[in-house]
Amino acid sequence: MSLWWKYLSEVSGEGQEGRWFDKNIKWKVRSGTKIKFWEDTCLGDTLSNVIFPRLYANSNNREQTLIELGSWISNIWV
Questions:
Q1: Which stretches of 2-70 are DSSP H helices?
Q2: Cβ of 13: how many Cβ atoms within 10 Å?
Q3: pTM, 2 dp
Q4: CA 9 – CA 13 distance, rounded (Å)
């Protein structure tokens, strides 16, 4: 992790304000190698582990990225 990201995470709004930086940034998925399915907001504004709590509880690998869980076929995620 770069020093820039380290310092940004330290000032990004822990506590009552919530993580204001995380709430106001959007990732562009592209290949899906950096976005974690369960830990990043890739389905709207809510974490996947909140939307699908039973699937998350039964998941063997909670660190998986999008590319590890599927692929694009004719512009549709499968």
A1: 3-10, 20-24, 48-51, 53-58, 66-69
A2: 14
A3: 0.51
A4: 8
